[in-house]
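## Example record

The block below lists the input lines for one assembly entry, exactly as stored, with component labels intact.
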Amino acid sequence: MSVTAARLAVPTGRVCLANQRSHSLMTARWRLIFLLLALLFVGAVVILRIAWLGVVQPGPQQMTMAEALLPARGEITDRNGVPLARAFPARALWYNPDALGDGGTPLVKSVREVAERLAQIFPDLDAGMLEKRLASGKPGYIRRRLLPDEADKVQALGELALELPTERDRFYPQGSMAAHVLGYVAADGHGRVGMEDVLDERLLDPARRGEPSALSIDVRVQGALEDELRRGMLAVDAVGAAGIVLDVDTGEVLALASLPEFDPNAIDEEGQKLMFNRVTNQVYELGSTFKPLTIAAAIDAGAINNLSRRYSARPFRMGRFTIKDSHDLGASLNAPEALIHSSNVVTARIVDDIGPAQLKRVMEDLGMNERPYIELPARGFPIWASGSWPRLRAMTVGYGHGIAVTPLHLAGAYAAMVNGGIWRPATLHKLGPGEAPKGRRVFKASTSARMNQLLRMITLYGTGRNADAPGFRIGGKTGSAEKPGNGGYQRSSLVSTFAAAFPMDRPRYVVIAMLDEPKGTVRSSFQRTAAWNAAPVVGRVVPRIGPMLGVKPDSTRDIDLTDLKPLVRGGSE
Amino acid sequence: MTGLSRRRKIGWLVVLLACTGLYAALHFRVNAVKSEVRLAERQVVQLEEERLLLETEFLTRSSQQQLDDWNEIEFGYKAPRPGQYLENERQLAAYGVPRGVDAPQPVRVARSDVPETGSEFETMVSPLTGRPIDAAMFGPGRPTLRTVARAESGPARIPLSAVIDGSEQ
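Predicted structure tokens for the full assembly:
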């Protein structure tokens, strides 16, 4: 019994063990299968999720703080860091009729009510027009560039169809000031016309646009120049005006104004027409302002070695033309008197002494035969006679006719004449100390010193007296030229210019003021020449800008004129 | 043995759970801090944009043209004239009036040069305590004329306690 039991017990125990083992194995296998299935399921979910993120969902719009703070377009500042153009996030008002998404009316309130409420927020919008616009059910901008409190008021209307999308906006805090220098940004996000165009790549480059781009412009000088030019232009009813302030030692342009101006904040059709830059793009015959350059060329070449030498001032014939002065200046004049009274005849005779080739070479050295050197894209090509000049051509160029250049050409030439004789290209970029271009020598330093005396004498005794602001030692030359038209010069339309430098005892800045087609008005004593309209503009600009530029008015200082005073009438006493 | 093994298993499980819990807590904490940082960054960006907007509005309202109009129409300011500037002592002296014929002799006082290091005046002391009245005025940290004149904000005023420091001249 016990043996049987023992025999039975062993196989039974073994069977149980085998069963248990196979059961455990099965359990383990099932667990493994469950685990694998779970892992497969998780893997499939992950892959599906990745596919969904990659294909269906748009990418997340996450930006780092540095990226968010980087302006969409770099800032442009003046030489002292005052912002002239900046990009900042602004809100627009967009009408989206499908915003409610229920296929019903786009607005919760009545169209009339919403239109009236919007007209209350924006008083310049017409409620009637707005009502029609909202009723038409077409999406579109109602207004660009909202102020934050205006956006809050629109939000308070509670209309989902009035959306306020954030947009990157280019804004010019100074309004129309320096518009021709700055230009504007078109709808495609790229600059046009001015430095916005020139600096476009730099202003959009993510690596460089965080740093503002400094121009050579000084906003205070620009403001004063534009203000006085505008006043001068309106006083004589001129069609346009141009002005420039140039640093004679570096070529930096401190102010550049072309009037009438446009508003870069709101470009419209009228603004498009006014984008023409009179300083860099339009060429004019600048008349008698060329006479000092001619005299400088003559002194430099040794053709004038005695300033007391007298030349006949009687009109003379040159081929088919008679060279004459605007009025009788007596029998003879010396070179200082010729400048003071602006004599065409004597200047023409001096040109004859220099010779056409020499005058042409000096004009070429002054850059009169090529487009002006400045960064702006719009630069006018001078009307310049190539080849060798005949005597008549040289004579007319000597007093500023038969050659048409931009006011910027003239400013560069005057800077070279007064700064010791070095011509430098003009620039709108701010230059650091020691960065001024080397330039090229056009006149001897002694010629330049002599010309400083002569220019000062013109404002003391001659046609530039209206520009002589007390204490600022201004020297300059007037120029009034008839504009060329059909069949010769038009006597009725003038271009009057005053080209000046200050202070003449150590010239630092050249100031040019030009008025296009001035009329004779009460303010100009019914005169149309530069002495009565352009010269007073310079006389008012310089006292405003001088102290800002470090030139203090001082009536105890002036350039030494003792050797030249006895040569002119009124100078000897 | 089995009981020990079970306890060990439970122990491991507890440790695992504790670690998981700690990890979860840490994870939540990290995410909370991250989200706070993101929020702060967003606030910084928002404030910066607001500042930019306000600054631009201020610049627009105080544009050069506007300032010119105010200066001319509201205040009637004019460009400075040469009479408003003095170049040197000679020009200042030119404002003096020559002494009249019968005018009395100007009062002349004797003075002797003092060494540069020594103070010209004795320190003013309080009659009660015998200590300097204003330690700030006469102490080492006194404001000098130059430091006062350099201050950017506030009205252009030189406080009485500002004295010219000989070493800064």
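Chain B touches chain A at residues 41, 44-45, 48-50, 52-53, 56-57, 59-60, 63-65, 67-68, 79-85, 87, 91 (CB under 8 Å). Chain B has a mean pLDDT of 77.
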